[in-house]
Structure formats: structure tokens, C-alpha cells
Amino acid sequence: MNHSPPIPRSIQELPDELISQIAAGEVVERPSSVVRELVDNALDAGAQNITVRLIAGGTRLIAVEDDGHGMHADSLSMSIKRHATSKIRNLHDLESVSTMGFRGEALAAIASVSELTISSRTHIDAHAMQLQARTGELQAAARSQGTSIEVKELFFSTPARRKFLKSEATELAHCLESVQRHALSRPDVGFSIWHEGKTIEQWRAQSGEQAHDHRMRDILGDEFLDQSLAVDHLHGNIRVQGRVGLPDFARSRADHQFAYVNQRYVRDRVIMHAARSAYEDFLHGQRQPVYVLFVQIDPMRVDVNVHPTKIEVRFRDSREIHQAIRHAVESTLATPRSQNHAPFNEHSRAIADLRSFGNTNSDSTHASLNTWRQSRMELNQGSNAVDDLQKLWTPSAQATAPLFAQNPTSNYQASTSAFSSDQDWPLGKAIAQLHGVYILAQNHAGMVIVDMHAAHERIVYERLKQQLDGQGVQSQPLLIPTTFAATDQEIATAQEFQEVIQQLGLDIAPLSSKSLAVRSVPVNLLQGDAVALSRSMLSELAHHDSSTVIDRAQHELLATMACHGAVRANRALTIEEMNALLRKMETTERSDQCNHGRPTWRQLTHKELDAFFMRGR
Q: Within this chain, do residues 321 and 388 fall inside the same structural domain, yes or no?
């Protein structure tokens, strides 16, 4: 059967309405997209209070009211034209955007797929004016200074797209999430959300130094504030602030991760990877950290004009951003949490000062740092016995070397007075050992329970990391090299990063155009799967910064060594040994979790103990 060739169609310009509807698909995906764009405009207008009203999850009605500057009557008609905006004038403005909106697309896109009405009034107008977007009709209206925008019957003109919307409850949840993201970054603005005529959320404007904490508590709950630490870190000209959740507070999903760049909520791989990598020594498997991070950076060093939704950004120096965020989170998590349980003496005052000032170059911070160092020296005076008993190996020594002497009591005679003093140590004074596994101690707050193996494992691990100090991982040649079929990318990566791979204790070289040979592996992983290890390293090198991969691999090896070398369960410890372990925990970074992410200690307060026995009832 013969088919005649298709007749070529001539090229024609699309009608303006169809152009607008096509463009709207990039900006307006669902009701929450409309909410995001309208709240952006309200914040740019200087609003102090924003009200969002929804019907049917936003599919029937989205109304956003603000008390901002408002618009003059002659600006209303212009506001719904494509690429009409008051926020940028030239290329320089575009490259240094400091407003939430700037593309001039939102209102035009929304108007093309809904019934849009705008009412606005400035402080010099006698009354408000109202614009019907579809007809272009202007008429007088009654309202105070500010702007009200109503969006009715979203996607009425494109019914096919309306079919892709989810249930009302799902769309409402997305709208709530959109407002929450704005509210977290702007505690100085009050927000209220109504659905079907009822208030479902209201967050009042906050002021003062604790404004962000109050807003986070309102939105994310008391538990987030109780289970997180404040971040304030200066890295060059990049400032990172906010709060990061404790490792114990990690979740199975990444649904409580909020990152902002110059107060704009973003989803950025660089930021997400930097934050997650800061938890590498704490979280294992698929657990996801919880955080709210605010990054302040020169607008000229970040491009926000990457996507019509403005939720993606591109940094001029991604490495700089990655380092700033990782260092900010790492330094915050490194300080032992036990310091928060200490009485407010000079030691804990130094910790508080360091957290307040972050990583700045101020004289106050240097003074606080010196106080912290002095405090660590004072704390270590009571735990020198651990150094006497712990014969920590260098990276080349056997992983089975004993860390505690078999007859340690005599070594503690010189330091016993430090533990018998009246000083109230953050983790308290040891009183007993339970089942050869746990240390029981008492402090000013109540009772402390310590997993002695987990705690000592972290102490050994941190010391090994310091001892490694840039040395390469020792490798062992294989008697018979292991070969495997490799992809073109794996072969290219093996050739490009040959020196880096050797630092990791691996020797991987091309055997042919389609295979690789593993000729040596790290000494401590001789019993492991050489092929799986090689593929993992090559994948990491292909997708991430090589220095990050080196650190991660070295730390994994050291963690294995520390686990084998730490004091074992059912090992009887003297009171002095237990106290020495507690003192080391108080001065060892990241000592709140073991190398596998499990907690090393728990605090039971007087109130909790009283509740167990119903005292005071």
C-alpha cells in the first residue's frame, strides 16, 4: 500500500493567548505555584501582614491580601502584561536581584489560565481601583492600603491540565507548605491561612533576636527547637545561620530540610550535599538530617534567573558555598552536647560565646576561643589517666592493640582528687557500671547513662583522625588481581584520578578498553569485596569533589579500626576509669554519637526520675 508523503506545514506565529498559556505551564503547575508567586509579590511590596484564602484546596479560589505599598491605577493594567515588572530595569539589575520576584511573568501567566481580579490602593489614593484581567475593565473599589488578588477557577481555560490536579486535601497541603516556606524566612511578617472560611494557620509577626526561633517553633514544633542547635558561621563573605537537627532527630524522609539563599527558598544540590556530608560521621544508611539554613551571599555571586519558578539557583563558586555550609554545620555539631547540661560557669560561657559569634574574626571570638582551649586543658587534667592507659596505635599499628591496661588502678592515684572534688562536671561523676555495658553517673540535672563502648569508640575514632593528619591509607597488594567489566566512565575516572585512588589505598588500572584490574586494596579491607569497593570509589570520584571522597574513605577505614579497638562490653571498669571516660567525652568533638550514628549517652532529669516513681503526686 502506497502512502503519499506528508505535506509540510508552514511556519506561523502563535496567537498571544496560546503563547501565554504555554508560558503559564512553566510558572503555574498547581494552586501552590500561584500562592508562591502572589506571596512573593506581597513581600516585595513591603507587606507586614499577608492573608491567604483558599476554597477547594485553591482550585476554586486563591485570594492573597496584603498591606504593602499598593499599586497606582495606571500600573494595574500593566501588571498583567508579560515581562512587565517594576523590579529590574537593565542587565545589572538582573545580575544582582534582591527581590523575590523579577521576571514579570507570574500575573500574566496566572491571568491566562484563570479568572484574575486585582484590587489595590496606595497611601496617596483616595480609594482603591479594581481590574478584571480578562476584560481589562477598571472600576473603583473599597479597601485600605495594599493589594488583593483573587484567582478563581484555576485552569478553567485548559481543562486537560485541571485533570492532573490531585485531591483537594493534597492541593491544600501543597499550598500550606508554600506559605510555610515563606513564613520561615520572614518572621517579621504575619501570615494567616483560611480554607473554606475557617482559619487553619496563623503566625504572628515576631521581632528581636529570637524571632526566627519563635517562628520555627510555631511552624516546625517544640520538638524541632529542643532537638536542634543554632548555627551562625561566617566563611569569607558568606554567612550561614539557622538551626540544624541533632543526629538523633534525623528522619526517614528529606521533608524537613529548608534552605534559603538571600531569604529565597531554594532546592539546590550543592546545599543539600554539603549539609548531608556534614552529618557523615553521625548518620548512616538513608536517614536524613533536619535543618533550616539561611545563606547570605552577595547577589552578584548567585544567579536566580535559572528557572521560571525561581526555586533553582546557580552559584558562581559552588565549591565556596559547599565549604561554607559544610563547615558551618560540622562546627555546630562538633561541640559536645553535654556542655549544654553544665552549670553556667566560665567553661559553658565560652561555649555560648563561640556559638553566638560563629566563625568570625572578632576579638571577642578569639577571647572566647582561648577560654574554650583553657577550659579543655582544665577538663583534661582530670582525665590524663585515660592517656596513660590508652595505648593508641598509629595508623600503621594493629587494630587489636589494647586500649586499657589490665591492672589500671594504680595509674589513677594521681588523678583521683580531680574526680573527688566538688566540681559539677557536665556528664557527672560515675557511681556504677551496669551489666558491664553502661556507666551510671549523676550530675546536677539528674542521672546520666553512658554506653561505654559507643563512647570510647568515638573517642578513639576522633583521635585516629587527628593522627592520620593527611597520611595516605596503607594498602596491600593482591596475590591475584581482581578484574571486572567497566563502563567508559569508570575507565576514564580511574585514569584521571589515579593519584587520588592510590591515596585511598587502591590500585585500579585499565586492563583493556572494557575492563579494570584491582591490584591492591586497603589493609583493613582485605576481606571485603574489592570490586564493590572500587566501583563505589569511582562513582564518588565521578560525581563529587575528590577531596571529599578521600576524607570519606579514610574516615570509613578509621571508623572500622576504632570499632575493633574500643573497650568492649562486659569489661569491668573502675570508678576512676569510668570518670576518665566521661571527662574525655566532654572534650571530644562529636562525642554525642558513636561512629555508626547511635547515641553514646542519655540524660534523665530529676523531673523525669520523679515521674517514674510518681513523687509529688
A: no
